[in-house]
Fold:
Amino acid sequence: MRKNTRPRGVLGIVAVAAVIALSASGCTRGGTNQGGGSNAASPGITDSSITLGITTPLSGAIAGQGTCTVAGVTAYFGALNAAGGVKFGDGKTRTVNIKSYDDGYDPQKSLANFQQMVSDNVFAATAGLGTPTNRAFREAAISQKVPQVLVMTGDPLFSDRKQSPWQLGFVPIYQNEGAAFGKLIAGSGQPHKVAILSQNDDYGKGYVQGFKDAIKGASNVSVVGEQTYEATDTSVDAQLTQLASSGADVFFDAMSITPLAIASLQKAQQLGWKPSWFLPSNTSSPAAILGPGGAAAYPGIYSVSFAKAPQSPAFAKDPDVVKFLADLKQYAKYPDMPAFPHCMWSYMVGATLEQAFKTMTEPTRDSFMTALRNVKGLQAPLMLSGTSVDTTTDGQPAVSSVLVQKYDGKGYATVQNFG
Amino acid sequence: MRNPLSAKPLSVEPQSVKPVATGNRTVRIVVLVLVAVVLLLAPLNLPPFANQTLVRIGVYAVAVLGLNIVMGYTGQVNLGQIFFVGLGAYVTAYGVKQGWNILLVFVLACLIAGVVGLLVALAAARLGGLAIAMVTIALPIVGVPLAKRLEGFTGGSQGISARFTDAPDWSGLYNDQWQYYIILLVTAAGFLLARNLVRGKYGRAFGVVKENEAVAASMGVSPYRTKVLAFTVASIFGGASGFLYLAAVQYTSPETLSFGHSISLLAAMVIGGAGSIAGSLIGGAYYVLVPLLTNAVDPGLTTVSQGAILLIVLFLLPEGLVSLPRVLRRITGRNRDRPGAPQRTVPAPAPGAGSEKQADQHQTEHQAIPDQTDQQQTIQHQTGRQDQA
Structure:
């Protein structure tokens, strides 16, 4: 469409003349433009290779998680490339190249990185972490018809097909996690009084909404206290004191700040309030949060997950985990035990992409999106049994099923019932 | 430039300098026209990514320019410039969402940022030195949670997108080219205004306040008013930069005004050249290009390589990249003059030396002040400048 509206009037003539003048230097727009015909291959894919781009924070406060998003995908395709490549749906075998770009969690930089990806002939952007950084180039990706898929954000916008035709989120949206816990409590059959503390933004609100929707109509669950805090607050002692006085036996703590999560685990003990806790997946690390917070004092700490935890002794000999750790070490220069679940998630992103590659019948972005939206029941490596990749439902990310897990003093174990 | 320079040849050696001045003037006009033509035609020939990069350079050049007016020219530490950029961006996003006329939105973005800057400055400029820095630090720190909480205006922590820079059909241009022209227009106007400001009487007032507030007061220049003015002008430029930010990025979120970016802007200003109009443009280019460069080197080591570049530039060119031609000239000049006159290598021009016209305006600025002052103040001013150096 863009191409057709271009040469018009005097400016068009000037432009064409200039393009001719510069064509010797290879600096023309035609070189970077999208292919014209419908059968022509999209940029970034040849008969022997395909190039994917990741813009993610590799510096700054969340560089650890960001580095993991690159490492997982790189490890997955590194192993496949070493074995010869991926056999695509059009019958050709291609190697998969990953280009990574640091955005430092700065939206302006992630847009710049996206523009560079387009100029670097990247086929699709994938696996990048961060809501603002992904939102910053969402519209540009739509208008240029570049896939921005399996990104690491719990923002539901990316899974809304009408608004985001070239996007797809990977990780469960916040509502999915809250709903999983709500369902567990509602199904317990026992009377429970729930206190809720949530971050006053889309993150906290998403959790609370999912939870409340799940307990709607369950007569055994009542919400007796609700408080919020700001992501920039340094203490939630006041809110905890108030919630403790409500006498709740279940505490739904939708928190994304690590130090605050530790402090609240400690503060509630000081107040003599010992409910069962629910913590979101990214503030439930046994080593970083539950240990320092003295979580063993509580009757139960619940969280949700869909990935096998390599740290957990239960999975130490699991073949998925063994291969994952070996791939990380060999192909992604990541020799340590992954500190963040994002490493596992982006490894699964690799498996999901491979599935889409296998079924895309033409080397085009259109065909890729069609194939990607048709992955169902894929048990990607490292996924807990009972969860799977399903990209066919509008409004849901690629992984929407999570399992509730309970802290057992060392790691987490999946539970079916509350209590 | 016309003000101090055209005054100078008339007072000092009028006969010998004047013909040179007119010759330079023609050359300058030719160069200006050439630059204008290149700037106008460039986007039609460049690949989209180059245009998009130039667009972002324009955005940050305006922000750095504002920072330069308050810090480089007036010497007041401002660590909150990104707050005004973010404010301008939010005002623009809100205005576009409401469907207001885009010119009105632009004026509002500048005006609201300017008014907020004025209010802050009225209080902050009463404080001396580091206290101003503390007040300005508070701006982005307050701004981020405020942007998250005022969801009705800002879209909360998910941010707000607004598209208004898609090329209209009649133009026959690509979006990136259209954006380029919008940003070229605003940036060029901003630089022209800033240049006139710092070279006129306000610029001289800024310079005196920077050097010595007591001298300024004795000359009848109110340091307080001058600081408030500089701060307000910087905020207006911040707001304009925010408008351009939205024109280029089409999205803003609380992350836009996080404090770290303010420090990056400051670094860009120092790297480009404090107290220099051209340095602001270089600073904007630095802000945008270095992350691209370090990404190309190794995306996992961007912070380290950016720090290394910062250190190297500051060690080799403590006055910023804008001083590169001068330093080169000094080095080559030293080699040429070695047998003859080594004293030629001293860079500081004598006050009133009309032939130093081509020296960058940072020096011109300093030269301009003595003309206006009596003998005693000239001496004091020079002493202050040597201390600085």
